[in-house]
Structure formats: structure tokens, C-alpha cells
Amino acid sequence: MNLYCVRFKKEFHNWTSGNNDIDKFIQQMQLHAKKYNEIIEWIPFNKFTNIEYLSRGGFGVVYKATWTDGYIYGFNSHKNAWKRSSQMNVCLKRLYNSNDINKDFLEEVKNQHKYGGDSSIAIYGITKNPQDNDYTMVMQYAKKGSLRKLLDSRYHMLNWICKIDNLRYISQGLRAIHKAKLVHKDLHSGNIVNQSYFDPYITDFGLCKPVSQDSGSKEFFGVLPYVAPELLKALFNGDNIVYTQESDIYSFGIIMSEIINGYPPYYDFPHNTDLALKILEGQRPEIKCEVPQLLLDLMNRCLDDKPKNRPYAKELVDRLKQYQYDITNEKTELYKQIKAIKTEKFPAPLIYKIHEQASYKSQNLSKTLKNFQGY
Length: 375
Prior knowledge:
Layout: H1 2-11, H2 20-32, E1 41-42, E2 48-56, E3 60-67, E4 72-76, E5 81-84, E6 88-95, H3 103-115, E7 123-128, E8 135-140, H4 147-154, H5 160-179, E9 192-194, E10 200-202, E11 221-222, H6 229-236, H7 245-261, H8 273-280, H9 293-302, H10 313-326, H11 333-340, E12 363-364, H12 365-368
Parallel strand pairs: 1-7
Antiparallel strand pairs: 2-3, 3-6, 4-5, 6-8, 7-8, 9-10, 11-12
Helix pairs in contact: 1-2, 2-3, 5-7, 5-10, 7-9
Organism: Gigaspora rosea
Domain Protein kinase: 48-326
GO molecular function, one term: ATP binding
């Protein structure tokens, strides 16, 4: 890769993002890349075709597009040119008000790109649409969309093997993040995307806040149903919000309930101060189906009020790996528990009505919950 770093350096004068911090960020990523999947590029917007709107989040808009060049996977010394994959579908995440993009935000992007592991979505580069002037992340496209979308449309097709597979792969992504001494901060079913029915990827860690907000800000962003109670308590008491690996594990527990149950957490509640208080008082998402006790116990440990009682990501991976084996072994307790569950028929797709004051987009909870102080 050292020879290719020299090549990258020679090309620095051929492009600019128009933002000095972004230019330096991309250059440093290229100079320090040890593998091809660690390369980030500045990609001219005219390299994208067939741009199609997908969804809108709290701080950006997501599109599907065709990248005509594809990513770098080598160098052809005879042609003196990069080897690239053929044209491919990618996800474009346009970031609102990103002219004020800052170094803290770019550091979070680097963390996802470099330390996310095989269970995190790949980042290929950064681009900018000249029509709206917002910077846009170029990321791996997941054919099945978000985990939430998959559950809405295909929950009735997911048996216990598929559910445990999804949970295991998500836990592996979380373990990679935590092993690098990082925290996701905004783990929810909208930030997990699927290539297939049992191939989930974690995305958007650190991307849940405005790109201009620095790490010292006291504003608190997230999706309320997934926020750990200790963070809500700190918010209500006016204390500093400190995201921890334990708070990520709580969010995983909520996702676990969602995969088991099919329904979004607290979909029939207004997502306001009243719900936050109920969470602080111990309320957790309702489970509307029979569940093997072993899985229920693991989920409840993740959702424990006390952060120190929650399992580490490594334990989640180890247990779920074991459950993948146990589920087909008739001598195991998990196999017996699943066999004892009556087969249930679920509507296809799931039928439910989200409360008009419920929101599953990342938002400024400091403002949403501002009417309550002290707990």
C-alpha cells in the first residue's frame, strides 16, 4: 500500500472538496490506509447516476444511486491507473447544513470506516451536490433496507434461526466498535441495514448529531425508545451526558426486543417526557409473542436499569453463537424451549399504528424533553 500512498499524494492537486478540513481528512485517510477497504475518496458528483430518494432522517436525506466508477481495489502499473470494481449501487447520505462540517464529525466518520469491522457498513468517500451545497457520504448500499423496514415487510418469514442470526451479526458489529474503545451512541433499527434476511450491518455511529455540533456540546441527540435510562436521568438532572458502551448494550436490548417481537418499541406511546419517566421507572417494550426463556433472560440483562449488570458485547457474541448451534440440537435447552412454543401466525406485513407523537428519527432530546427538570 505504501506505493499507492505515493500515488494518492501525487493526485492531491487534482481535486478539492472546497473544505480544508475535508481535504485534509481524505488525504490523511489515503496516506494511512493499510488495506483497500480503508481508502476514502473525494468523488465528483457527476460520477453518480440514477439517483433515487429513499428516506429522510433527523439530520439528513438518504438516496440510492449508481456509482459509475466503483471503488478502488488495486493499481494497474501497466496502465498507470487504479483498478476499480464495475459500476455499483451505493447509498448517498446528504447531511443538512454541512458547510459547517467540523473535525469532530470527521473523526467519527473515520472511526466507523476504520474500526467498524465486517458488520459495519462500508464508507467509500464523500461528495457534494452542487445544487444544494450539502456534503454527502457515499456508503455501501444494503438491498433490503433498514432492519425496521425488513421487520415491517418480512417479520412473518423470520424463524428463530433468522432472528438469532440477525442478533449475532449485530452483536459482532457492536463488539468490533467496543473493542476499538468506541461507542456507537445512536444504535437503533433505522441505523441497521440488511443485505439479506440475516446479513445486518451497523451504520451511522457518531452521525446522529448535526455535523456542526462539537463534542463538547451539552445538547443530547437520539431516538428516545432506544436511549438508556442513565442518559435520560443525566439529562433531567442537568448533568453531562456521557455515552458508554453499557448504554450501547441497552440499545441492543431494545433492538433484541424488536427482532423478537416484530413491532417498534413503544409505537403506541407519545415519545415525550411521560415516556422518558416511564422508562426511568422501569418500563420496557411489551413482548406480544412467546419467547424462549434463554433469549428473554439475555434481553432483560441488556435492559437492566444498572449499567454494570449488562453483559459485554463479547458475551453477547459468544452466547448468540452458542444459540446458533443449540437451536438445531434437540438435546439443548434452547431447542426444547423453542419446540414448546406454539406456532403463531403474524400478518404480512405487520399491522400496527404508530402514535402521531412517536418519532423514530434522531432528534434533539434536550428540546423534546425540556419541560422536565430534576429526577
